[in-house]
Amino acid sequence: MLRIFFGTLTLAATVRLATPILIASVGSCFSHKIGTFNIAYECFMLFGAFFAAYGSWLTGSPAVGALCATLSGVVLAAVFGIFVFHLNANPMIVSIALNLGAWAVTTLLLTVIWGVRGTFISPDIISFKPLKLPIQGGLAYLGEIFGNHIILVYIAYVMVFVAAVLMYRTSFGLRIRGIGINSIAAETAGINVLRYKWAALIIMGASVGFSGAYLSLSGLNSFSENMTAGRGFIAFASTLVGDGNPLICGAIAVIFVYADALTLTLTSLGYPTQLTKMLPYLAVLLVLMVGGIRNIKNQSTI
Amino acid sequence: MKIRSRDLRILCIQYAQALIITVILGGILIRAQGESPTEALKYILEGAVGSPTAIANTLRWATPCMFTGAAVTLAFKSGIMNCGIQGQVYTGALIAAIIGYALPMPKFLHMPICILAAGIVGMLYALIPALMKLYLKVDELITTLMLCFVATYLTEYIVIWMIIGEKVDATRSMANTSPNILETAEIPKLIQGTSTSYGLFLGVAVLIIISLVYRHTVIGYEMKQMGENLSFSRAGGVNTSKMFLGVFLISGFIAGLCGGVEVTGSYGRFNINFSGNIGWDGIMIARIAGNNPLSVIAVSLIWGALKAGSMQMERMTSLNRLSVNIIQMLFVLFVAIDYEKLIAEFNRRKATAKFKRQEEMKC
Predict the structure, then answer these.
(1) Structural domain harbouring B142
(2) What is the pLDDT of residue B171?
(3) What's the CATH code of the domain at B128?
(4) Which A residues 182-221 touch B at CB under 8 Å?
(5) Could you tell me the end-to-end alpha-carbon distance of chain B, in angstroms, rounded to an integer?
(6) Any alpha helices (H) in B137-236, and if so which ranges?
């Protein structure tokens, strides 16, 4: 039992699989704090995954792939921004249209560029190589968990702290939080609200797009239709539960991903995949319930 | 519900402009794939309204859209973000399929019970996020989203491991549908030989009832009021908690009905993950229809026509059916633009510029 929950297999998988969720949810903390409603995570991530694979396939360099992924996220975020900030469209509808559109566009590109339906696997898509961290001796247990991952994994954890510093120790973060609390007051104080909203949105687009790069360049050398499969929504959930605080969001994301990593071990023990795949979503619901318990004494109004 | 001529003009601008931009971009998209846009349009129309079978297909695909559109309209008009339509549809559909194949009943009883049970299960599935919102203050948007995924996997588990698992062991990994429902549980077909059933009229009826409730009853007014201004309706004496629960449950009930009608009317069994984005479709349809229940009927028909037509287009040309999906999303994007605000903004700027010019002339 202990081996299932604390074995190196599960924990290493947690560290690894947390990458896309961490990058996405930490990056979108800014747009959450500033008060932009956006659930187009799936769209940005799916495009990121596609263009990471495409860039890597064209040039043979995973770094270029990751760059392409980031750029595609930025472009899509710009589309979202134009519709929501300048054309006053309902952000929810734009998000949904982008999410479904992304699925259609990437699948179409898959058939147009590579002529396959479903999954494209190719040795020409070069993945990132795992780094061998020199952790030895008594720390072998930690070494097995934290060593031997690709560079994106380490970037993700560094990002959490960078984002926290940016949010709580710089004037940029202060202004973003201020706009989120009261945008009219911020405007009166002479802050260009729209510019900060754009900056937050671009950060979100870039990081969610970048997170997609992990999906296709983590050793699978492939891109498949609807590759994100709900990961974007998990990232959205952790941003929402952590209320835009990068450290809390990161911690919550790791909890959700831990439930996802258990899937791997539990499936190998013969539990039905359908049940184990539900675990991350149930974990989200459970965390929300626990977080809501303190509200239970209040009157039941909405 | 009188529409002022100014509103009507803006509405016309909104739809006309969205349509024009979409047609241009769609044409470019099709042209880029090396096909003629007019040819593609011809096949879409042929597949949608070209023959009795084509019309039947259109109606068949419009049916689920009507139910989900109704469920979304109801919820969103009261300010409830029910994004878990899909989960409610799936759970409802599964119950309808199980009752349909496992419990033999007389003909006049079986089908209504299947559909009703589907609705009730959909309603119960909506009860979870509703209670979480009322007692734990958890945002219903995120809970319904998560419950969507839970429902997808849960129904898959029940079908594969509990229903198929005990019937045929050898083909466990092959089959992923429940057994066919009994003939007594099927909704009679509207057009013989197709999968269009009288379930269509149930969808239309639901939408008409919603429209009548909104127009002629106090409850309908209170429901609308809650979405427009929550504190006002609370101050006006509406029990918002009770109203919230009621609207949420009815929305879930309608979504469940959708599942029931899909299974008993069209598929005849429960296919795993039979419609991946049925809930999102509902939200988009409700938005295009401007949350007006009667317009939902029209938009659903267009949605069904596009689906049926795109299949025909895929058969006849080298184009992928997804092209039509992309064009649909483009249309949704451009319809979502708030032209009223844009025009107001434009007029304001013009007035400011004029004022400035006058000031300069005076100087």
Answers:
(1) 15-31+38-342
(2) 47
(3) 1.10.3470
(4) none
(5) 50
(6) 140-157, 165-167, 199-216, 218-228, 230-235
Give the separation between CA B117 and CA B260, rounded to whole angstroms: 8
At B236 the pLDDT is: 81
Q: Is B293 helix (H, G, I), strand (E, B) or coil?
A: helix
pLDDT tens-place string over residues B272-295: 777 778 888 888 888 888 888 888
Q: Do B146 and A291 make contact, defined as CB atoms within 8 angstroms?
A: no
pTM: 0.86
Residue B199 lies in a domain: yes
Report the C-alpha gap between B131 and B151 in whole angstroms.
Answer: 17
Q: How many domains does chain B have?
A: 1
Angle, helices B140-157 vs A231-241, to 10°: value is 140
CB atoms within 10 A of CB A198: 20
Establish if B356 belongs to a structural domain.
no
Rg (CA), chain B: 23
The Cα of A14 is separated from the nearest Cα of chain B by a number of Å equal to 20
Interface contact flag, A88 B135, Cβ < 8 Å: no
The size of the A-B interface in CB pairs under 8 A is: 140
- With beta carbons under 8 A apart, name residues in chain B contacting A93: 283-284, 287, 332-333, 336
State which amino acid sits at residue A121.
I
Nearest Cα to Cα of residue B189 among B121, B251, B268:
B268
Q: Does the pLDDT of residue A19 top 70, yes or no?
A: yes
Which among B4, B23, B3 is positioned nearest to B15, based on CA atoms? B23
Name the minimum distance, in Å, from the CA of A36 to any CA of chain B. 15
A96 in B contact zone (CB under 8 Å)? yes
CB contact under 8 A, A302 and B133: yes
Q: Which helix (H) or strand (E) holds A119?
A: strand A119-121
Domains along chain A? 2-290 (1.10.3470)
For residues B273 and B256, give the distance between their C-alpha atoms in angstroms, rounded to a whole number: 15
Residues of B in contact with A225 (CB under 8 A): none
Token couple for A271: 């539990």
Task: Pull the structure tokens for residue A123.
Answer: 């040795």
The answer to whether position B52 is within a domain reads yes
pLDDT for the residue numbered B106: 81
Taking the Cβ of residue A104 and every Cβ of chain B, the question of whether any pair is shorter than 8 Å is answered with: yes
Residue B113 counted as domain residue: yes
